[in-house]
Amino acid sequence: MTAVIFIAPFNLPVTMRFVHAVAALPNVRLGLISQEPLERIAPELRRRLAAYERVADALDVRHLEGAVKAVAHRLGGVDRLLGTLEQLQVQLGQLRDRLGIDGMGEEASRNFRDKARMKDALQRAGVPCARHRRITSTGEGWAFALDVGYPLILKPPDSAAAKGTFRVTDAETLQHALAALRPSPERPAVAEEFVTGRERSFETVTIRGKPVWFSSTLYDPPPLHVLENPWIQWTVLMPREEDTEDTRLARPHALAALQALGMGTGLSHMEWFRRDRPGGPPVAISEVGARPPGAQIVSINSYAHGVDFYEKWARLVVFDQWDAPPRKFATGAAFFRGQGKARPGTRVVAVHGVAEAQRELGDLVVDVKLPQIGQPRAESYEGEGYAILRHPDTDVVARALRRLISTVRVELG
User: Fold this and answer.
1) Rounded distance, CA 346 to CA 355, Å?
2) SS3 407
3) Alpha-carbon distance 238 to 366, whole Å?
4) Quick one: DSSP state of residue 102?
5) How many CA atoms lie within 13 A of 292 on its CB side?
6) Buried-exposed string 238-267: b where 16+ CB fall within 10 A, e elsewhere
7) What is the reported pTM?
8) What element of type H or E holds 244?
9) Using one digit for the tens of pLDDT, what is the confidence trace for 339-380?
10) How far apart are CA 366 and CA 303, in angstroms?
C-alpha cells in the first residue's frame, strides 16, 4: 500500500476534487490534513480516509510538521505528500526536506513561488521573459520605472492568479502601487516590464523532470485585465488541435523553463504571451506554477479527451504514471461575473439571458454552474458561475463562448 498525505487547508470544491481522486486510487492509504472540522468533509470521502488531522493554520509549516508526523505514524509511514494550493507549495517542499519524503524540495518550490527568483532563473537559462527587478524600497521602484518606462507591473513576489498585482501607467499610479505594497527588505515587491500580446497558458506533465505530455489554452481577455475590471466576463479556450502554432512557439521555452526551475513530477501551469511587438521575440514567459492550473482547465481537459483528468493527475503524483488519449474535442469555459457596485453584502439579484443562451447553445454545454439568486458576490476571478462547452470544431466553440458571455448577464445588488 502507498501511504499518501494530502494537505487541503480549506474545503474548496476544486481542491476536494483532487482529494477525491487520490482517495479513489487502488492500494492507497490516504491521510488528510485541513483547517476544516471533520464533519464538513463529505461522508463518502470520510469513509475512504485512513487518518485525519485538523490544524489551526494549514499554511503554517510549524503547525503542519507536527500534523504530518502524527498522520504518518497512523499510516505506518508516508510515501507522498501532496497539495494543490499555490500558497502551500513552499511549505510542502520544506516538509519533504525535513521529513525525508520523496518529491520537490524547498529550493525548487521557491523557484516557482518567488516571481523575482523565478525570472532570474529563467533569464540565466536564456528563457524569454519580461525585464524585472526585486525592489525593497519605494526609491528602487521609481528607479525601475525610470529605466524601463511605463507601463509596468508591480506585485508581491509570491502573488498567485494576478492577485495584488498593479498595472502602472504613470507616476500617479506608480505612487499608488508603491503605497499599497510598501516594499522593504522584509517585504520586497517585484517590478516588471509590462508585456503586451495575446495571453496563453501551457500545461506540461513531467515525471521526475522528463516531459511526457502538454496542452495549451487561450485566455480572452488576459487575467490581469479581468482582475482590473470585475464586471468583465471572460473565457478560456482549448483548441481541438493539439499541435498548433501557439504550442510550437511555446513548447521549447516551456520545457527549458521547467528544467531551469527544477520541476519534478506533476502537472505544471505556465502563463505566457504571444507578443505583438514588431521586431521583438515572439514569446515572453509570464510565470510558471508547479501545481495544476485553475480556471477550470483540468475540467476542460477532461471533456476534451473523454477521460477524468483529476484521476489522471492522482495517478501521476502518486504512482508516477501518465497516459492520456488523443484529444477528441475543442472545449472552453465561460465565466459569469456580476455587474453592479461591489460593496459589503452585495449579492446576486438577477441572472439574465439564460433561457436565450440555452436555446442557442444548450447542445454544446457539458457542464454548468449557474449563479444563484441570493449568493454572495464572488471574490475569485472566476466569478459567480461558469459553463463548459464542447464540440469537435474549434471555431464553433470559440464563437459559442463569445456569444455566451455576451448573452448571460449577472446582476448584483
Assistant:
1) 24
2) helix
3) 14
4) S
5) 25
6) bbbeeeeebbebbbebbbbbbebbbbbbbb
7) 0.90
8) none
9) 887 778 899 999 999 999 999 999 999 999 999 999 999 888
10) 8
